[in-house]
Amino acid sequence: MSTTSPQWAPADKKEHANDERAQEFAAQYPQRPIPTDQPFHTDPLITSPAFGLDELWKAIEPETRTRANDIHLPVVVAFATRLCDAYPQADRDIVLTAALLHDTGWAHVDESRIISEGFSGDWRKAAIRFEHEAEGVKVARRVLPGLGADEAFITAVCDIIDGHDTRHVPYSLEDALVRDADRLWRFDLAGISLSCSWFGMAASDYVARLEREILPELITEVAHAIANADLERSRQLLRTEVIR
Ligand SMILES: [Fe+2]
Ligand SMILES: [Fe+2]
Fold this sequence. Notes:
Helices cover 53% and strands 2% of the residues. It has helices spanning 20-28, 54-59, 69-86, 92-101, 112-116, 127-143, 151-161, 173-184, 189-199, 203-214, 221-238; strands at residues 9-10, 31-32. It has a two-stranded antiparallel sheet with strand order 1-2. Helix 4 (92-101) crosses helix 7 and helix 6 runs antiparallel to helix 7 (151-161). It is globular and about 55 Å long. The relative contact order is 0.15. One fe (ii) ion is lined by residues 102-103, 132, 164-165.
């Protein structure tokens, strides 16, 4: 069993070459994974659920009925809450609102294409991925004004929802925290269970893939630490060294 510590490195300039907003963010946070001087912990997520935002949860209740969003979204919001605690310079309201809304668009696309297109091949470039982001922006624009959000706040939230899967690079710390929370979900036991079922993969193969493909994509030091701790726990619990 391996515990990978983050490889400290500068932000990849090539990756951001053609995108001004991404370049600006990379210049602002040149070290990757992004470190923090705040205390943080890596306890299992179930020990630190997120609270609040009840009106927003109620407003998107129909959207929680698709693609296990009633599990995915609360888990992502709970991870986002923990990341906001560790990076207090991020705007917490924007992060948590974007995390809560980011995948609501799945409820407004052709459900039969979610698995066939959205989870296969080069899934980041699948048309259905762009569609669920655009539909998520529409949901945000539908529900947020009635809850008292102003245009600047709504735009900031929509900028994160739009491109959260299909854009390769983050534009802000808020964007980075939502991306990390969305990826951390896969490392939680709930995410492993649902993903194995969606992808038709054995748990041992799936956790190996998490370490190989998803872990390196995490942007913050805290997300790396949480992912490594979750990986280690899941490997032990699921006996992945034995059941292969
Ligand atoms: Fe998504
Ligand atoms: Fe997501």
